[in-house]
Amino acid sequence: MTENNIDIPHVCYNPALGPIESCDTCIVRANGKFVRSCSTKIEDNMDISYESEDVHSRQLEAVNRLLTRHDLQCTVCENNNGDCALHNAVDKSICKFLLNGIGRKEDTIMQVSGRAGFEIVQKVAMFGVSVISSVSAPSSLAIELAETFNITLISFTRNNRFNIYTKPERINV
């Protein structure tokens, strides 16, 4: 699909290595079945859906699985060269989800299953999402940025408890 200028989110695919098939962020629907676009050969008359709500939902689910295991310590990451496959997949998935009218921005909560770093707050601010929730501590820069962009930042969400760092008026307890 990449060869046909169809931009599908992906993390594990590398043209030099071929399909690794481990991240599932490139899920599309081909002839009614969900498949990985990195390893699916396009055939004549193949019915491919890559912009539908159910496809985006599967892509976001895959990105969330990856974020669950990712530290999001971008500022100290040795691979922080501005071309992070995970951040790129988050950008593409969220952008397609929101810009294609699937869901409303003000009704969307970004759940991060790790630390709420300022990079994630920055991305969410660009998309107009009003609430970010994370299971770990936010960075001080994330708190400052959330306050600046009028985003509700919730962290330590576990065991029916959480801490609200910014804009608590949005949350009814």
Give the SSE order as H and E letters: EEEHHEHEHEE
Question: What is the CATH first-level class name of the largest domain?
Answer: Alpha Beta
What is the average of the pLDDT values? Answer: 78
Helix-strand makeup class: alpha/beta
How many individual β-strands? 7
CA-atom Rg in angstroms: 17 Å
- State the separation between the terminal residues, measured CA to CA: 46 Å
Which percent bin holds the helix content?
25-40%
CATH architecture designation of the largest domain: Roll
CATH topology of the largest domain: Ubiquitin-like (UB roll)
The domain count comes to 2
Low-confidence regions: none
Strand order of the largest sheet: 4-5-6-7
Shape: elongated
Helical stretch count? 4
- Beta strand %: 15-25%
Give the biggest sheet: 4 strands, mixed
Task: Provide a descriptive summary of the structure in words.
The chain is α/β, with parallel strands linked by helices. It folds into 2 domains: 1-103, Ubiquitin-like (UB roll); 104-173, Cytidine Deaminase, domain 2, CATH 3.40.140. 29% of the residues lie in helices and 18% in strands. It is built from 4 helices and 7 strands; from the N terminus they run E-E-E-H-H-E-H-E-H-E-E. The protein has helices spanning 53-68, 85-99, 118-127, 140-148; strands at 27-30, 33-36, 48-49, 109-112, 131-134, 152-158, 161-166. It has a 4-stranded mixed β-sheet. Strands 2-1-3 form a 3-stranded antiparallel β-sheet, with helices on one face. Strand 1 and strand 2 form a beta hairpin. Helix 1 (53-68) runs antiparallel to helix 2 (85-99) and helix 3 runs parallel beside helix 4. The longest helix is centred in the middle third of the chain and has 16 residues, at 53-68. It is elongated. The chain starts with 26 loop residues before the first strand and ends in a 7-residue tail after the last strand. The mean pLDDT is 78.
